[in-house]
Design brief:
The complex is a heterodimer of chains A (about 475) and B (about 575).
Chain A lengths: L6 H33 L5 H18 L5 E6 L2 E4 L2 E2 L7 H13 L2 E6 L5 H12 L7 H11 L5 E5 H4 L6 H27 L7 H16 L1 H7 L8 H19 L4 H12 L10 H4 L7 H7 L2 H11 L8 H9 L20 H15 L12 H10 L7 H11 L7 E4 L4 E6 L11 E6 L5 E9 L12 E5 L9 H4 L1
Antiparallel strand pairs in A: 1-2, 1-4, 2-3, 4-5, 6-7, 6-10, 7-8, 8-9
Helix pairs in contact in A: 1-2, 1-3, 1-4, 7-8, 7-10, 8-9, 8-10, 8-11, 9-10, 10-11, 10-16, 10-18, 11-15, 14-15, 15-16, 16-17
Chain B lengths: L1 E4 L17 H21 L5 H18 L5 E5 L4 E3 L2 E4 L8 H7 L2 E6 L5 H13 L10 H8 L4 E7 L21 H7 L20 H14 L4 H15 L2 H20 L3 H14 L8 H14 L2 H13 L6 H8 L7 H10 L3 H17 L1 H6 L6 H14 L5 H6 L6 H14 L2 H9 L6 H14 L5 H8 L2 H5 L2 H15 L4 H9 L10 H12 L4 H9 L6 H15 L1
Antiparallel strand pairs in B: 1-6, 2-3, 2-5, 3-4, 5-6
Helix pairs in contact in B: 1-2, 1-4, 4-5, 8-9, 8-10, 9-10, 9-11, 10-11, 10-13, 12-14, 13-15, 14-15, 17-19, 19-20, 19-21, 20-21, 21-24, 22-24, 24-26, 25-26, 25-27, 26-28, 27-28
Classes of the chains: A alpha+beta (about 475), B mainly alpha (about 575).
């Protein structure tokens, strides 16, 4: 029975919606209070007002719940048992609070009725204080116990997580998902090439796995896209475009089912290339005009292939359009050309961005020298002739960061480092997390040194990126530092 | 093989203590009830009081379990389900093998969390019930459970996709970098160096206006007509494609039609047909052979079973298919659709659908009159009647002899329609045949023939009419027939008929008796058709008649004569 026809279900849905709004407002209020305290002294009116607003938000929720448990599990945020939907309007707020808690290894905040104004000030001040290098959670707990805070408790990150994974297992999961996905794409596409398309089951599972990973383990799965030599380009490219598209869709606030539709289309966006001669697809050098004309037909071939494929009969129409439209530019140029009126779907435009980024940053046939990822992003952003949707490029930039994962960078210390996680905090975009792999004397570090360029300890040597560079110049395989 | 946890949102269950002694029995009972609910769902196709009872029982039993268990975690083995290291379910027969159903698709553990509500349970049961019907190549329980996204159900599974997959490995060990290389790299003009301008937040963070724009785009995206995009793409490529691609597209287009019709998307089907029709214009980009193939799409659409299916589906889907959409679609059908459409018009129950079909028949009949006439050689009454009707409406005079032959048809309905058609044709062949029909064995046909003759004013029929109005047969006939014949006689005879009619209305026999009242009334009505002073005078003489039947007829007839 649908919620529309079942009053009880409808009531539940309404309650969930109200709870979503109230919880989200609470997060915004918490963020505002933290920010105010960061910028102004306690006596400042802005601080006083923001704490009062935070208390109002807490009171509102406590009127319907016995207590409030704000919990972060990987990238997911929960208030009590409700998972909050993160979208373009909220990700920065949620992310900042998550990072603030993570610095102290805090996984959850537990609020009982009802903390006073002073308790909140004390608690927020503690959160903003520099964490201790050793046992930050333990030290925070000690400070909290010494403070006057009585109605706000905390839980350690590990204790509160659902199926929490350490970085190693996250990476293992991501590697497995990536490898499986490439294998399934290879199998599906080979089947198509041989005229024996297999069913959708494995393709669907693959997309579902990728979505699960993007939702719960985004940094790790995104890092897989930087593995440039894992398998034949066409297969890894398809998986990368799927990962990037789903990550961008997540940023836009698409629901899980919408991500599924997007992911399916993205994974199969290049299926039309299977109709092209292999020697042209894999040609190492530049393409002749005739060969390029042939390549330009792959979107149309993709559409026809997907329409004709009985085995893929369940592919949604948007998926077919993603195959057809992913080389169309915003100004109607690009290919294929259109006689009848056409505006590429939003999903197609997402795939266009993901495809353009991955293709330009990859070493592949007819492009022996990949472009540096940061330059690709800037070109996509600044050059309207490229024809990308500027809003989507912006959102994509937020997903990858200014220095995408896998970038080889030179620090102002003359150390060489690989970017392993973007920083999405406003004002700190240029300070990702890196793995320093060579010291300033050119000696490899074993193990490499993991440094969050945005969270360098007081008194420690501060590092800044001064440029990106070409891994081939140093014979560096960045994959080594990502997997 | 990999055992993977689903990523599912929800509170982590509290650590459970030792279950009570009765807990095992209650778990057993609940799993058994789950199995029964699945079978009941299969049996009753997902609805019915029996299923409601089972589901309600599942809910109740689960609620009871939550009072003593923090969660319900079941291990799935090939042919049994275990809980807390004990077997709680063994299938008694093959159709009851819930464990195997789960095991087959890789599920090894199910965890139900408090909060699992009725709708979630129903969704879960429906997926299990449908599992046997899943086409193995398209879905399995894992894909379907993922799509369901049940927040209070978690499952652990063996991921068969992971078998034999080689995981990515790191690259070769790093070699030292020449000292100074990095410094000289820094000194070189950068391939890509970001300037301070590149870190402006406005470049990376969407402002309110942009967020609103994206929200609008998202909303628009989910309302857009994707079929229109697909169809436009197909025809764009058809027009500039190679012969090989054109052939594929034509085949795809032909396959698309049933898909669109199946989805009740007649409007898009009409767009598709309009595009195809454009392709068949004289400047068509298609080679001759492909043109023929393309034309055959229309012919296939006109097949009797296709039209029957179309009518059936539009008639049933009153909420999703409008008569306007149907009209738009039918407008593209070829002449071969005439007969099937006539059957469709008969079969449709919704008046607006019948009107749409009739409009399509009219268009086709007007454009292809010879095809209408050809239908007169069919055996089916619906086609004969339909053809005759349209021959009449379109006044296809040359078809009169063929229509006349219908007057010998055993079905009176056909003869009736034939008379209507002949009446419209108004030629001598038609009138002669209608005159013969005055003696048809069926009263309805005779009445129709009499009225038609009156309308056609065919003088040669006068003798037959005169003989009939004075015959004993008519005296025994029903009033309707009598009136029809008398009126027809009056119409045809004119002033010459007044004498006879006056006698029947006002005359007396030698013993002073008048004709029966109904005959006199009919005679009055006959005089009403003459419209001469004599006729009026005869009627006036009867104006004071005391018999109400006669008086009423006389009054009516005088009014007719006067006007």
């Amino acid at each position: 029975m649908s919620a529309a026809s079942d009053p009880a279900a409808a009531a539940t849905t309404d309650t969930d919606r109200e709870m979503q709004i109230a919880s989200r407002d609470l997060l915004f209020a918490l963020y505002a209070a933290l920010r105010a305290l960061m910028l102004y002294p306690v006596e400042n009116q802005t601080v006083q007002r923001s704490v009062r607003e935070l208390m109002d938000g807490v009171r509102l929720l406590l009127a319907r719940e016995d207590r409030i448990v704000l919990r972060y599990v990987e990238d997911l945020c929960f208030v009590n048992d409700l998972r909050l939907r993160i979208d373009l309007t909220s990700y920065a707020t949620f992310g900042t609070i998550a990072r603030t808690l993570k610095r102290h290894d805090i996984g959850a905040i537990d609020v009982e009725p009802e903390p006073s104004h002073d308790e909140w000030i004390a608690f927020l001040t503690l959160l903003l204080a520099e964490p201790e290098a050793e046992d930050p959670y333990g030290r925070f707990t000690e400070r909290l116990q010494r403070s006057r805070v009585r109605h706000i408790g905390i839980d350690a990150a590990a204790e509160s997580a659902i199926g929490d994974r350490d970085p190693e297992s996250s990476l293992e999961e991501a590697k497995r998902t990536f490898a499986q996905s490439v294998a399934v794409v290879r199998e599906a596409m080979t089947g198509v090439r041989l005229g024996k398309p297999s069913g959708m089951r494995r393709v669907k599972r693959t997309v579902q796995l990728i979505i699960d990973q993007v939702l719960s383990n985004e940094v790790s799965i995104l890092s897989m896209t930087a593995l440039r030599n894992f398998d034949e380009y066409t297969f890894t490219h398809s998986v990368n475009v799927c990962i990037f598209s789903v990550a961008l869709g997540k940023k836009l606030g698409l629901s899980r089912h919408q991500l599924y539709e997007l992911g399916l289309g993205a994974l199969l966006h290049d299926v039309g290339k299977l109709r092209m001669p292999v020697e042209v697809i894999n040609k190492p050098g530049a393409l002749s005009d005739e060969e390029f004309a042939m390549i330009r037909e792959h979107p149309a071939e993709g559409l026809l292939e997907l329409l004709a494929m009985r085995g893929f009969s369940e592919l949604p129409l948007r998926g077919m359009l993603m195959a057809y439209e992913h080389h169309m530019k915003l100004d109607q140029s690009g290919y294929p050309t259109s006689v009848r009126p056409r505006e590429p779907t939003l999903y197609s435009r997402i795939v266009t961005v993901a495809d353009g980024f991955d293709a330009a940053t990859s070493k592949r046939s007819y492009q022996s020298q990949p472009w540096p990822p940061d330059q690709v992003l800037r070109e996509m952003r600044d050059n309207p002739n490229r024809g990308y949707d500027p809003l989507l490029v912006k959102a994509f930039n937020m997903t990858t960061g200014i220095y995408p994962i896998g970038c080889l960078v030179i620090l102002d210390t003359y150390e060489l480092a690989v970017v392993v996680a973007p920083n999405r905090t406003p004002g700190l975009l240029h300070r990702p997390t890196v793995r320093i792999i060579y010291n300033d004397l050119g000696v490899p570090l074993d193990p490499p040194l993991l440094v969050d360029l945005a969270a360098q300890l007081p008194g420690a040597r501060e590092r800044t990126i001064i440029k990106t560079t070409d891994p081939d110049r140093y014979g560096i395989d960045v994959a080594r530092y990502l997997v | 093989m990999r055992v993977a946890d689903t990523v599912s949102a929800g509170a982590a269950p509290a650590a459970g203590g030792e279950p009570s002694a009765g807990a095992r029995e209650r778990v057993e009972d609940w799993v058994r009830a789950l199995s029964k609910a699945v079978r009941t769902y299969q049996l009753y196709e997902g609805s019915g009081p029996a299923l409601d009872r089972f589901l309600a029982s599942l809910d109740t039993k689960l609620d009871a379990l939550w009072t003593e268990l923090p969660l319900l975690q079941l291990e799935v083995e090939e042919h049994q389900i275990r809980w807390s290291n004990e077997t709680v379910f063994l299938p008694t027969e093959r159709s009851d093998d819930l464990p195997f159903l789960l095991f087959r698709d890789g599920i090894r553990e199910l965890t139900f969390l408090p909060g699992l509500d009725h709708d979630e349970l129903l969704s879960f049961v429906s997926v299990l019930a449908g599992a046997n019907r899943i086409r193995s190549e398209d879905d399995d329980l894992l894909t379907l459970l993922w799509e369901l996204e049940l927040p209070n159900l978690r499952y652990r599974y063996v991921d068969l996709l992971a078998e034999g997959v080689e995981l990515p490995k790191g690259g070769a060990d790093a070699a030292p970098v020449e000292q100074g290389a990095v410094r000289s790299d820094v000194a070189e003009p950068p391939r890509s160096a970001l300037s301070p301008d590149d870190f402006q937040e406005s470049l990376y963070f969407l402002d309110e206006v942009e967020l609103a724009q994206l929200a609008r785009e998202l909303s628009k995206e989910h309302q857009r007509d994707l079929w229109a995009d697909i169809i436009a793409a197909l025809f764009d490529r058809l027009e500039d494609g190679t012969a090989e691609r054109q052939t594929r597209i034509v085949a795809i287009v032909a396959d698309l039609l049933p898909t669109l019709l199946g989805a009740g998307n007649l409007r898009k089907g009409a767009v598709l047909l309009a595009e195809i029709a454009m392709l068949l214009q004289p400047d068509s980009p298609l080679p001759a052979a492909l043109r023929q193939e393309t034309e055959s799409i229309f012919q296939r659409l006109a097949a009797p079973d296709v039209i029957a299916e179309l009518v059936r589906s539009t008639d049933v889907n009153s909420s999703s298919v409008s008569a306007a959409d149907l009209s738009e679609f039918l407008a593209h059908l070829p002449a071969a659709a005439l007969a099937p459409l006539m059957r469709g018009e008969r079969d449709a129950s919704r008046p607006e659908i019948r009107r749409s079909i009739a409009a399509a028949i009219e268009r086709l009949a007007a454009a292809h009159p010879h095809r209408v006439v050809e239908l007169l050689h069919e055996d089916e009454p619906v086609l004969l009647a339909g053809a005759a009707r349209w021959i009449g409406r379109l006044q296809i005079a040359s078809a009169a002899p063929a229509v006349v032959r219908l007057l010998d048809h055993a079905d009176a309905e056909i003869r009736l329609v034939a008379i209507e058609a002949l009446q419209s044709l108004r030629n001598s062949t038609a009138a002669e045949a209608v005159t013969r029909a005055l003696e048809d064995p069926e009263q309805g046909v005779r009445v129709a023939a009499a009225r038609a003759i009156a309308e056609m004013r065919y003088p040669a029929a006068l003798a037959v009419l005169e003989k009939t109005v004075t015959s004993s047969r008519l005296r025994d006939a029903e009033l309707t027939e009598r009136i029809a014949f008398f009126e027809a006689f009056g119409s045809l005879a004119g002033a010459d008929g007044v004498k006879l009619l006056d006698r029947l209305l006002n005359g007396k026999s030698w013993i002073g008796r008048r004709e029966p009242a109904e005959i006199r009334a009919c005679a009055a009505l006959g005089l009403g058709r003459v419209r001469t002073p004599d006729a009026r005078s005869a009627l006036t003489r009867a104006a004071d008649e005391t018999d109400p039947v006669v008086r009423s007829a006389v009054t009516r007839a005088i009014r007719a004569v006067t006007t």
